[in-house]
Amino acid sequence: MPETTEKKKVILSAIQPSGTITLGNYLGALRNWVKLQEDYHCIFAVADLHAITVRQEPKTFRQNILNAYALLLACGIDPTKSPVFIQSHVHTHAELAWLLNCYTQFGELSRMTQFKDKSQKHSDNVNAGLFTYPTLMAADILLYQADMVPVGADQKQHLEIARNIAERFNGIYGNTFKLPEPYIAQVGARVMSLQDPTKKMSKSDENVNSWVAVLDKPETIMKKFKRAVTDSDTVVCVGEGKDGINNLIGIMSAVTGKTSEEITAEFEGKGYGDFKAAVGEAVIEELRPIQERFNDYINNKDYLVEQYRKGSEFALKLSQRTLDKAMKKIGFIAK
Ligand code: TRP
Predict the structure, then answer these.
(1) To test ligand 1's pocket by mutation, which of 82, 112, 140, 202 has the most ligand atoms within 8 angstroms of CB?
(2) Fewer CB within 10 Å of terminal CB in the chain, N or C?
(3) What band does 204 get if pLDDT is binned at 50, 70 and 90?
(4) Catalytic residue chosen out of the listed positions 203, 226, 258, 325
(5) Closest protein CA for atom 6 of ligand 1
């Protein structure tokens, strides 16, 4: 387990156990996290408390939490280097979230675009947790005095509010929380929908052909790529109005490490059909070892339990310090 006294900067991130991790999540986020482990002190979590802001079926939820944990490891996150824990196992998260709720304004939570979107989508269940989701996320980050948080565009606003809450708290009580910065990956692939390449790939898209899951079967992956929407041109090259092909080239490049020029040269004189099949094949090969490792982990529950217990032990120790500090500043009496 890394020593917290190391001078390495702290990076914290989390994923929700939503059941499906897409190729977009992998190429845009997870794969970069794996690389970050070398240069930073990384801490990762499965954000299961966040997940219940929408209704979960208990049996599926339980499985999804474990799957998300196993998938993080399968993607290459090494729990002996970077603690990986399950959010609900570390009680400081819910506790700090409560405190932070009292330093967060109704108005600023109302302006969160994700809240507005989600409350429209789940209009039958606009619960208070959905509303205060950002304060829990702020707690996740601030508890570990994280220097940086790798976030996609959809989570940027949540990181900003975390900074604002921290700044406000520090302003009242003196320096308590480190202000986290967004970590922008140098080479973060932005993977678009295979069916509407002007939109980001998202598992919530009801057209299942628009996204590829990291755990999709090879034949499913191939089928989805073969059906990918392209254009009426015939040349495999990056261009305006060629969103579908641009996206496929981006995926091919992310997976093989080849530049778009190299890919264009390779497919000169070949049609879109050949290209789509080649991208499908390259993605299948990229995901194959991950899928194999995932199956190994998920069939070795004892190992997973051992790792998530170690992870939460570490996380609790570290986060308790911050929670204690914040409580003392507010004026709570020590136990
Ligand atoms: N809200 C994030 C998402 O849905 C997940 C998350 C929870 C997170 N806590 C976090 C991300 C802390 C970064 C840091 O993607």
Answers:
(1) 140
(2) C
(3) confident
(4) 203
(5) 14
**All structural domains of the chain with their residue ranges:** 10-188+301-330, 208-294
Contact of 53 with 18, CB cutoff 8 Å: no
Residue 118 annotated as catalytic: yes
| pLDDT above 80 (res 189) | no
Under CATH, which number does the domain 208-294 receive? 1.10.240.10
Distance from C-alpha of 292 to C-alpha of 335, rounded to nearest angstrom: 48
Q: What is the pLDDT of residue 19?
A: 85
178 is catalytic: no
Question: Which is it for strands 84-86 and 41-46: parallel, antiparallel or unpaired?
Answer: parallel
pTM for the predicted model, two decimal places? 0.93
DSSP 136-159: HHHHHHHTTT-SEEE--GGGHHHH
Provide the pLDDT confidence category of residue 3 given band limits of 50, 70 and 90. Answer: low
User: What are the tens digits of pLDDT across the range 136-172?
Assistant: 999 999 999 999 999 888 899 999 999 999 999 999 9
Q: Specify the CATH class of 10-188+301-330 in words.
A: alpha beta
